[in-house]
């Protein structure tokens, strides 16, 4: 049984669930907690269901009115004649949607699995519970319930802490706060040696802040096997304006609610590209961030949330970034990547990686773009740097990342199965005595 939080958790869980689904003897159930409006048509959920994976939203476990569930998941529509759509939306959000979501949030945080599934036997048919690394009250509550029923719990990596900001004066506090959910699960899988708690580790297993050993199995989201599979799952991106550019560029934006990048310099960068007719620039906002207001033009557009980052990376000739781990997919695909260091106000952890992709100012950016336009270069990092980056962050134990995760989770589920059998035998003997 998988408990999946927000969209990034779904990105990291889907590859390993798909790998597990290749085993016909396994029954897999996923409960999604935070996705709302996109739950019904999210391509990852549609894909998992096509593999016979049982995917349910947490709201659907609460045994509440179907009307409330529809409101919460964005599938309920109200029509009020004579009012503008914007006014309807404001009234609907404040008077109906917000109170419903507050009520359901409280219910989910205090979820009683026995009540939701009808009996302890139904949800405890699960031999293993798998969580994301998201810190939330829901997971704390659920972990405790599974522990009471002897069901092992495992934490999958949210992804490499590749783009985590280094707030240098309080780094120790950041590291401590970043891992508190992992104290609750039996085993936390590490994606790489580069994860926050294991930056100095060089062994096949590393220790979290509680001193427990964790297996290092690699990054599921950026596993080469999954990246190859994405090509058949995600539709190619098409730029909205017809033209024949010499260079296609994607800029992956950081979350605007964190003071990670200089927004004034970012807008200057966009203006630079809008003045270059031989270039198409696509801006991609963080999926859990509001869309920024940017000066779009014939050759500069903002991709919506429905546009896959993977499709944009496949489309691009050059990928630019500041604070995001999605750039690792570009490296797996061997795409040219530029790190816009001069836009960054709070350095990310990946600055510890010795790789020659930093762009230190507008002059360097213009020079790089000019070199690509005239075909003078087609790489921004060496083959050796790429190999070392993938080895340390994406697949430290080999490219068979999904196979390693699948094997490990099956082993843990067998442990859970044996625990329940032993518990039943013990109870049977006690009754017999």
State the total count of DSSP E strands: 13
Domain tally: 2
* Annotated CATH topology of the largest domain: Rossmann fold
The helix-and-strand class reads alpha/beta
Widest sheet: strand ordering? 3-2-1-4-5-6
CATH top level of the largest domain?
A: Alpha Beta
Low-confidence stretches: 78-83, 167-182, 196-206
Count of runs of 4 or more consecutive helical residues: 15
Order of helices and strands: EHEHEHHHHEHEHEEEHEHEEHEHEHHH
Give the biggest beta sheet.
6 strands, parallel
Radius of gyration: 23 Å
Task: Tell me the fraction of residues in β-strands, as a range.
Answer: 5-15%
Q: Residue-averaged pLDDT, rounded?
A: 80
What is the approximate shape? globular
Q: What's the N-to-C terminus distance?
A: 35 Å
CATH architecture of the largest domain: 3-Layer(aba) Sandwich
Share in helix: 25-40%
């Amino acid at each position: 049984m998988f408990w999946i939080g927000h969209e990034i958790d779904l990105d990291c869980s889907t590859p390993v669930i798909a790998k597990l689904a290749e085993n016909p003897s396994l029954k897999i159930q996923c409960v999604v907690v935070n996705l709302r409006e996109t739950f019904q048509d999210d391509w990852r959920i549609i894909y998992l269901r096509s593999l016979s994976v049982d995917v349910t939203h947490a709201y659907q476990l609460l045994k509440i009115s179907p009307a409330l569930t529809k409101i919460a998941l964005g599938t309920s529509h109200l029509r009020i004649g004579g009012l503008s759509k914007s006014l309807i939306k404001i009234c609907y959000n404040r008077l109906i949607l917000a109170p419903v979501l507050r009520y359901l949030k409280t219910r989910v945080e205090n979820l009683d699995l026995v009540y939701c599934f009808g009996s302890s036997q139904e949800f405890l048919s699960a031999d293993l519970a798998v969580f994301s690394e998201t810190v939330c009250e829901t997971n704390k509550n659920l972990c405790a319930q599974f522990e009471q029923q002897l069901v092992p719990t495992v934490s999958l990596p949210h992804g490499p802490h590749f783009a985590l900001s280094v707030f240098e004066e309080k780094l120790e506090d950041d590291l401590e706060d970043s891992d508190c959910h992992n104290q609750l699960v039996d085993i936390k899988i590490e994606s790489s040696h580069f994860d926050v708690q294991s930056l100095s580790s060089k062994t096949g297993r590393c220790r979290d802040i509680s001193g427990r050993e964790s297996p290092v199995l690699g990054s599921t989201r950026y596993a080469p096997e999954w990246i190859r599979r994405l090509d058949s799952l995600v539709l190619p991106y098409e730029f909205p304006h017809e033209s024949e550019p010499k260079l296609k560029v994607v800029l992956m934006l950081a979350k605007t609610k964190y003071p990670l990048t200089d927004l004034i310099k970012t807008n200057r960068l966009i203006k630079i590209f809008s003045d270059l007719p031989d270039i198409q620039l696509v801006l991609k906002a963080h999926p859990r961030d509001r869309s920024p207001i940017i000066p779009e033009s014939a050759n500069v557009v903002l991709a919506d949330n429905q546009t896959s980052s993977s499709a944009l990376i496949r489309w691009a000739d050059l990928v630019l970034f500041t604070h995001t781990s999605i750039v690792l997919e570009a490296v797996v695909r061997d795409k040219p990547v530029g790190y816009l260091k001069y836009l960054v106000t709070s350095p990310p952890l990946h600055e510890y990686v010795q790789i020659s992709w930093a762009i230190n100012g507008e002059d360097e950016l213009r020079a790089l773009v000019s070199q690509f336009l005239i075909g003078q270069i087609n790489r921004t990092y060496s083959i050796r740097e790429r190999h070392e980056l993938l080895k340390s962050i994406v697949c430290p134990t080999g490219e068979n990342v999904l196979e390693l995760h699948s094997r490990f989770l099956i082993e843990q589920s067998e442990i859970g199965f044996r625990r329940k059998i032993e518990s039943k035998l013990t109870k049977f003997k006690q009754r017999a005595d």
